[in-house]
Amino acid sequence: MNINRQIVWTLALLSLAATTASAQRSRSAGQPAFDVASVKVNRSGDLNMTVEPPGGGRFTARNIGVRNVIFEAYQVGKDQLFGGPAWVVSDRFDILARAEQNASREEIRAMLRTLLADRFKLSVHKEKRNLPIYTLLLDRKDGKLGPQLRPTSDCDQAPNSSQANPSSVSANEPPPCGFLVAMKIRGTTLPQLARYLMPFTDRPVQDRTSLTGRFHVELEWAPAQMGAPNAPQLQDKPSIFVALQEQLGLKLVADRAPFDVLVIDHIDHPTPD
Known about the structure:
Largest sheet: 4 strands, antiparallel
Oligomer: single chain
Number of strands: 12
Helix content: 25-40%
Structural class: alpha+beta
Strand content: 25-35%
Number of domains: 2
């Protein structure tokens, strides 16, 4: 082995040891953590971001802004995150993280919160602010639902969607209850549906339908029109606002209300691997 390869190999071992030691310290403090995690600056200048669906105890993202990692870790929308320097949006990173065992999506989110605290020194607090929101309501006065919102009882005893592991579902099986697959949701509640809609609108969504129980949902709309109530139709698909009315018998109404937000108190550029 020549001297250059030996140096590279030694540095790789030191990097792995450092990341593993960081995870061990986090676990010893009672915090869930990945066993191995790598965070590297991406200087490609590419505008595209790739995030593999969390599953199997892994989180893999390339060319991602730390703001997007915070969105996933804390389950907040773009209008629910405040504070932080400009590089939180502009700088990009490659993040490869792995736990020894399979983990649910919620467990992976908890590990991401630990990773953000360990590597980016992130500290945050929650508060309520009066924000523009959308209220999810029944569209018809008689309460009739749309053809693609169907009550169901086959998920009443199912585990919470945060415990579902989509990697364990075969192609011939239905998705886990409450797990979002494209625009098909099996066995979801209306508050969960409101949360699912938030990334596709320009503001938070609150459920005020008063509908209880679980539902199967199928919703199709033109992706280019997300957050544009009066946009013309594209590719024979309606806007998300029209789709909700026609397909689910629901509607989004602009409103203002106190809403939980996340405020960045402190964040640093990540410590090197």
